[in-house]
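FORM 7B: Structural annotation worksheet

SECTION A. Query
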Amino acid sequence: MCRIAAYLGPEIKLRSLLTLPEHSLLKQSWQPRELKYAKLNADGYGYAWFNNDGKPLRYVYSEPIWADPNLHELAAGLSSDLWMAFIRSASEGFGNHTANTQPFRNAQYVFMHNGYIEDFNQSIRTQLLHQLPHEIHNDIQGNTDSEYLFALTRWLAKQHPSSSLPDLLSHSLEWLNTHIEQQKALLNLAISDGRSIAVCRYAINDEAPSLYYTTEDTNFPGGAQLIASEPLHPDETWHPVPESHILSIRPDHTPELRAL
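SECTION B. Predicted structure
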């Protein structure tokens, strides 16, 4: 289990999302309010953004966010109109090293997963090894279920090249529903192509992790749209994403919810 946050809107400093809010990801690393299967998020953190050429960049650190000596200097210096941020609570068997630290990225997408797949190595991993093409499987550097979910999403994107981001999440969940039987799977997924962001709140054989969104938090500039595992400020402008729904946000559009 982990905590995520995403921002789309007028350009802001990273600290406005990561460290300054009353219930920032920094604070959620040691004092989360709605973490279900863990108590701390102390196994690394990271964030991603897109450069002027539309290419994703990321910074990851495999130790607790509060231990990173670069945290506050980078958070004060980096600016973007789109942020994807993550703090990690590692599942058993998935060590806290850089290759396992999210967000993940390739040349086109940034991807995050909050949750876990029970008995992943004995079940879905084996099935994915038989399905994924070599060029995608060879890109996997770590051993987490989350990185394999990103590989699954990239594979489905190649099969459905005209799919929107919500469609890609839907295709991934359809595949997982077909292949998961008795085990629990918590599947809050987030993906961005640099122009928009899509997330889902979803689980199989369990309750989905918490997820919220807002377009009205006055601590952020007008037109900002935010998504987070827990509200960054304690006000009523944050709304829960219903379970078994996909939420998509795009510039100059209201957030769109799609039932699964």
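SECTION C. Observations
The first strand starts at residue 2 and ends at 13. The domain at 2-259 is CATH 3.60.20.10 (Glutamine Phosphoribosylpyrophosphate, subunit 1, domain 1).

SECTION D. Sign-off
Analyst initials: ____
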